[in-house]
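User: Here's a chain of 92 residues. Predict its fold as tokens.
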Amino acid sequence: MSDTPPNDPLHGMTLEKILLALVEHFGWPELGRRIAIRCFNQDPSIKSSLVFLRRTPWARAQVEALFIEMKTRPSTAVGKDGRPRLFAPKQG
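Assistant: Prediction complete.
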């Protein structure tokens, strides 16, 4: 066996760790905007979101995809509202 780290960004991450990282990075309002599910938009909590995500494969897949995007996307320019912009102006 080799000692190289796995290439999977979800390796070693629990659903709770993923959700906490997304809430810290985006906040509940932005997370609810990006993934439109009730547990993110109406009285959000980690506990209720974990229950829903563990029972709903399509929602969990969207949360994991957003986490991977957050981790693999290069940092870009930040807009006036503090959110990262996907298409930053060219430098140079």
